[in-house]
């Protein structure tokens, strides 16, 4: 009986601790749970030891340190990442999510924390012209539920066969196996996650970089639940803070030899 | 609820439904054709006949379908050079082929096991009676054991086909635009998860209950001799 009482007591104490821990009102954030995908190198990925790594992860840690809050990462598949935020599985999405009008209807965004162009990749010497005519009959792989998929469907949807994948890695695998002729994604993602790896040795960028605002929006931001204005303000200030202090530039240099913040 | 989204997405859902039906139907038909010889081999006395089939069933029943699909689709991609050399890559290149192949092998394994149980469940007395009439070997199987086994297996087989129809939703992960694939692509764009997956669920319900109805009709037909004859049909019964 004693043991049960002890157990009961500790459960109640845990519940109280949890209740006290959770932010009751604005300005009381002392811990932020961050949702990320963990399958989008070099921005967020799981390394050989099972740890989350990447530009997003480093930025997220730097931002939380700047804000003086504790943090915890939650890994969530991409196509459920916004529903997960709305279901309060985490408080912020730092997963290279582009700020778009469609998404703004469901979530709030901070200011951008980076902005990079989208590009196509094909086999070296494939001689493909990136135009509606040039892409006719080609098969293009793209990650499902991304702005790149929207861009591809709206601009080339009539002339190409589009295959949607759950992760960019799967699209890249099918480019290597020849099931698709091209893939389209963020240039930095393709560079770090594919072209610079052994698998991507025989492949190269084709065509220009795309940054059309209609699809690629205002850049990459942190998504928050609607109405979490205090948290949004904290993140915005922290982004400017780490840029002023040079922390951002250090993280930038760790992953890319060009500026990813844009202007 | 956005009824407009549901209405606007209907044409694409119909395309998806067609893919789901095609994949399921092809897998069921080919799977059944494979399952009958597999089941016969499974009950064979010779361990060299029985063994490989046992291993096949063991693998396909023992591993998740998702893993099998990944293995066949992305696994074959890794051996693209080898497969090209023996001229098979043009098949494995297509997600459609990989999907049907994994579903077919999976259902063949389950169906073979259902049939195996049914074959072994055929009452010994019936076999003995057939033997007494001079039937043996192939004739015995064709006339007595297999028809009886099919009748015994039918309810369990109905379940297997329903299961396969639902399991076919997994093929959306290898880029096929079946019902689930359509729902996922549209939901990614509109974020109308609730509306679109509810629509997908409704379509699956209609398909599954249509399927069950057909299978029940068939069950009714093949078990006609087990029911009491209709009353109008027995005036001549000598009391």
Task: List key phrases describing it.
heterodimer; A: alpha/beta; D-Maltodextrin-Binding Protein, domain 2; globular; B: mainly alpha; MetI-like fold; 79% helix; flat
Q: Assembly type of the shown chains?
A: heterodimer
In the CATH hierarchy, the architecture of chain B is Orthogonal Bundle
Question: What is the CATH homology-level superfamily of the largest domain in chain A?
Answer: Periplasmic binding protein-like II
Radius of gyration of CA atoms of chain A, rounded to a whole number: 21 Å
What's the structural domain tally of chain A?
Answer: 2
- Tell me the number of structural domains of chain B: 1
Gyration radius over CA of chain B:
22 Å
Q: Please tally the β strands of chain A and state the result.
A: 13
**Structural class by helix and strand composition of chain B:** mainly alpha
Shape field of chain B:
flat
Helix content of chain A: 25-40%
Strand arrangement within the widest β-sheet of chain A reads 5-1-6-13-7
Q: What is the count of helical runs of chain B?
A: 10
Q: In the CATH hierarchy, what is the superfamily of chain B?
A: MetI-like
CATH fold label of chain B: MetI-like fold
Spans of at least 5 consecutive residues with low confidence of chain B: none
What sort of overall outline of chain A do the alpha carbons produce when their principal axes are compared?
A: globular
Please write the string of helix (H) and strand (E) elements of chain A.
HEEEEHEHEHEEEHEHEHEHEHH
Measured as a percent range, the helix fraction of chain B is over 70%
Our count of helices of chain A gives 10
Biggest interface, chains and residues, is: A-B, 24 and 19 residues
